[in-house]
Amino acid sequence: MEPVSVTSSQVLSVGTKTGVPAWVYQHLYQHPHISHTLSAMFAWSSGELVKILGVRAGVGCVLVLATSVTAFLPAPLPGQYNEDAFWRNFPCPEDAAIAPCICSFSDNFTLTCSDLDSKEQLAEIFKATFPINRFDYFVLENSNIGQLQKGVFGDIAFSAVMLDSNNLTLIDEEVFATSYNFLKQLYIYEDNMGDELDFPIKDINQFTKLEEIDISGPYKTIISLTLPELTSARLSLDFMSTLPATTFTGAPNLITLTLESSPIINIEPDTFKSLTHLESLEILYADLSNLVESSFAFNSENLTYVYLSENNIQTIEVGALAGIHGEAELDLSSNRLEELQEGVFIPVVKELTSGHINLAENPLLCGCDLLWIASLSDEEKQRLQGVAKSCNINTEDYDMDTLLDFLVYQCSTHTPGSPQMWVFDEMLTIPVYQPVNDVTSLMQAAATLKIREDIISHESHTVAQCKKHAVADIPEILLAFGDIIDMTKKKKTYNDINEDTSVPDDELDSVMATLPTVTGVVVAVLVTTVTSFVPHPSPLQNSLHYDGRTSAFPCPNAEDIAPCTCLYDTSASSLNLDCQGVDTDQLNTVFSASFPVKVYTMLQLYNSDISTLVDDAFQGVSFKTVVMAQNNMKTVSPGALRSSYNTLQNFYITEDNSEEVLSWPLSDLVNFTSLENIAITGSYGEVIPLTSETLTSVTLYMYELSKLPAGTFSAAPALTRISIQNTKLSTIETSTFESLTSLVTLLIEDTNIPTLGDKSLAFNSTTLSEVNLSSNKIATIDPTAFQGVSGAVNIILKDNSLTQLQETPFLELLKGTTGTIDITGNPLQCGCDLRWLVDVADDDWSRLEGLTSSCPTDESYSMDTLRDFLEYQCSSLSNP
């Protein structure tokens, strides 16, 4: 039987009538078994087609062609049995002609080229015959191209172009000329090799449909963008120091704009004011020392996020921030602001409703420049976040109201300027009067030292009473600032000193000299005339010489713990110890040093040579988090972390360079009373039964683990998350997880499990939300494998070896849950084993993700198409 001659117009006509892509017909009509059917179809009108087929247009092709289904369409579906090379590759070119590039056609038509050696190789690839000259995506990555030359892509057009790490120093104009009317997405990333380059796409404004750009690399300039369809732009230009005010005026529909890691030193006025649809602006890692008037003026009703963190901002001019209103968030954290001027921030605060301004991690002086905050309503005050943290005030003791009460008292009764307060530092061997010119220092001093201070301020030149006490108790919270600053639970050891007039200099020195060098002695006096109380500042005050112990506190002396280092972060209230490149003897020496404080936030021990971590290795020093990585550690002795039995919350260990099979590193797990998270990574071959009332998360990335006993987790009832990856597990025992009543997430990935047996995935948790079993070589599933799975649970079975989806357990899972079941990437036969899906409701069917992609069909076959085919093909068969 000879193929029927069909014209292109007839093909296009039928494509229009049926909704099936024309190219399908262009190749089907050549098939000898269906040519006459197609010939008849071309003679039908669209009404006749609908009347004759009586089903959806897409499935109509299948049912009409089924007149000789046994000849060309054996179960399960059409595309499987077409063996000719053209059909197999269409719409892609021949594989060999474009190698090493790869063409793929599933949801998108994509061409990916990786690891090319030269621009000549790229040019040769595009000389191949391309059946279709328009791609959804073109990816060129990790290649040595140097230059993209005009004409290299011939007549090929792209909707999205992604150029990543290709040593590109030049892209000719009109390289993508054939894509001028198609390109929607443009991504360019080049490593910074030291050379400063011009903006890479000089003809970017020729792309009439461009919606998204993402450009990163060693570029020093940018052109003014005239792209009316552009909605998203991300620019990371390593050498761009200037951003012209007209850069975005020709892109009025921008919604999101990100400028990252560009050394911009100035934003010109009204740069963003033309962007009337802008929702999000992010600028980070720039060098914006000063924000000038109108530099961040906006005119968008949709503005929700202005992120200016980590830009070295030191000053902000009045009027620099405008048009930030409603629910918008302004993030100025991690800059170098020392003052918050009323004229800058009050207009913004007043315009916000539920939005806020984040000022955390700035070195604020917290003087009388903040007094304006006291005039705000409580609701308005809540819009200023991070002020107390930037003042370095322990927010557990001092809230914003405490700070404001003190500012009202201190700043409203004196002439403008910061008050002076003098603190006697008892830690020195000689008395030194140390000036304190801001609220922060006073509050820190008063909170640290154990005292009672009754301070009564007068308008005269005198200072009233000072009562000095050394106490041994833990410091109490300062209850109020005003005429009296009071700390409770005091213990007197010295007589009160009451002075009704100014304290003579010699008497003050005499009194100070009698005070012992112990923590807990302070004199803090508010003065209107400093000279009435203390002479001109001591010459020592600007050049204090602390001994090593005092200057290091709360850390040990640096030389005593080298090569380890100690870091105390006052803003985060964290005390961390970092050790790398140490051996066993050095570790012992480090922890034999004098540690003023015994409880640390975190220990990091890495890249060291410690084959055995011995019992009580840290000699009484405890940690909340321990991170150990690549230490050649073969053994962790029981009791190695005994000093952290009551403090350890997080334990992470990685040893993936060992050629030996390692034993479980935390054999005394039961002794840790606060442990919440553990992660074990490396050549570990066993796991013990986990006994812990507090453990909530377990990650086992254990390359040599081949067995997981059923009782592994039974004595850890608080577990909410279990992750088991990259192991040699070949089975999951019955009821391994059934005792975990709080389990939320189970991830088992990259194992050797061929079968899910009876009750291997039995659960008893009402909070279960995800069971992820990706990439495990699972080929069969016992009908009773899943038990107790209900509600909003997502089940992920991606990239396994399933060839069939049996009614049991999959129908029960669909009916019993409201989440998704993902079977993407399985070699399903898609035969009549799927007959049970015919009666499944549309909503349930849609939750079975990846079915179409796992079946060898193209995107022409929808859920309804597959359902109709299964009903037609399998209804008369008793067995799949």
Summarize it.
18% of the residues lie in helices and 19% in strands. It is of the alpha/beta class and 880 residues long.
Explain what you see.
The chain has 880 residues and is α/β, with parallel strands linked by helices. Mean pLDDT is 76; it is low at 1-87, 413-505 and 507-551.
Which value, in Å, is the CA radius of gyration? 36 Å
Structural class: alpha/beta
Strand order in space, largest sheet: 1-2-3-5-7-8-9-11-13-16-19-20-21
Helix coverage percent? 10-25%
Low-confidence stretches: 1-87, 413-505, 507-551
Chain-averaged pLDDT: 76
Share of residues in strands: 15-25%
Q: What is the overall silhouette?
A: globular
Secondary structure tally: strands:
42
Distance between the termini: 33 Å
Number of helices: 22
Describe the largest sheet. 13 strands, mixed
Output the keywords:
880 residues, alpha/beta, 22 helices, 42 strands, 19% strand, globular
